[in-house]
Amino acid sequence: MGLKNIDLKNIDLKNIELKNTQPLGKTGFQIPTVGVGTCPLGELFEEIAEQDAQTTLETAWDNGIRLYDTAPWYGRGQGEHRTGRFLYRKNRDDYVLSTKVGRRLLAPRSRKTFQTAPWQGGLAFESVHDYSYDGILRSYEDSLQRLGINKVDILYIHDLDTGYFPDEQDLLGKLKELESGGFRALEELKAAGEIAAFGAGINEPGMINRFLDRYPLDVFLVASRYTLLEQDIYADELLRAQQQGVGIVIGGVFNSGVLATGIQDAARYDYGKLPASIAARVRKLQAVAADFSVPLAAAALQFPRGFSAVASVLYGPSRPAEVTQNSVNFQYPIPAEFWLALRAQGLIAEHIPLPD
Question: Whole-structure pTM over 0.85, yes or no?
């Protein structure tokens, strides 16, 4: 489903309006409706030459992208360094920048034997979780240094979930650490005008409610949990966030790749191999997409915006061609009948809002 398969007759690539913005929850802050995440540029799946990384970001800018999301964890600092090297000479009022807090990077205890896994490349720094008052402020200041930019717009609490803390007592301990000081640090940064909003990155079902039970956040960055492939958290969690005025940014719209590539040997789901049950569902999605001549990636990019609380969607390119293709996908005209066909086959539940 590459560009050669897409009918470009009705799409003016020179006039793609990706700088449109929407309000982020009740913050009053405007955020671009589409952006790029830099996890792949941190070399999660493969090593990427510096020039290739910069060309990818430059292509995003040239295609109107003005929202960039990164994190200390991405490539153990590499993602922030690369994002900053690209953006620091741009007019700071021309883009929105988000990063994450909750991890600090330290020199490894054994430099000779240190491994960067799970990153295929990245930088040789150890990562420690720290959600305390001092830890959040240190994480924020360190990010500014790595970026070479003295202001970020949004901070997300990163990876505070069962995936990283499978033991319930460990998870509760980190949540308490956040409640005892980390939240206050974020609130002070916002009150001082250092940031426009703060929230949490969400990887696992159930975590939105656990955060909302403890603190009123501005935004959730929901990774791979509200997509064309799976929407289970909509009724139990996303609607509650909307009712409380919390903005939603959807990341991982391709479920780590399979909704961009379709079924193939190298297809990834949730950063790993494709389970049989997921593959069967993707095949059904592909069949409907083929019937309507709709690229699966276009449907994946556009689907989350049917929910009015979604202010923006993010995807993570690793090559310039992916940016160019997704600029088309984001604008691709999809008929209402396509979404209704997915609903008729049980691929989108009745209560899930559909794009216009």
Answer: yes
Active-site amino acid positions:
69, 74, 100
Contact between 132 and 179 under an 8 Å Cβ cutoff? The reply is no
What pLDDT does residue 162 have?
94
| Pair type for strands 126-129 and 21-23 | unpaired
Structure tokens at 210: 């656990």
3 and 324 Cβ atoms separated by less than 8 Å: yes
* 99 and 70 Cβ atoms separated by less than 8 Å: yes
Torsion (CA) 219, 260, 77, 115 in degrees, nearest 10: 130
DSSP for 231-292, written as a single string: -THIIIIIHHHHHTT-EEEEE-TTGGGHHHH-SSTT--BTTB---HHHHHHHHHHHHHHHHT
Domains assigned to the chain: 21-274+295-336 (3.20.20.100)
* Residues of the chain below pLDDT 50: 1-9, 13-18
Give the whole-angstrom CA distance, residue 290 versus residue 131.
46
pLDDT at position 268 is 79
- pLDDT at residue 261 in the model: 85
What's the confidence (pLDDT) of residue 57?
98
pLDDT digits (tens, 9 = 90+) for 168-191: 999 999 999 999 999 999 999 999
Give which of 256, 291, 332 is closest to 3, Cα–Cα.
Answer: 332
E-strand ranges in the chain read: 21-23, 30-32, 34-37, 67-69, 96-101, 103-106, 126-129, 154-157, 197-202, 219-223, 247-251, 310-315
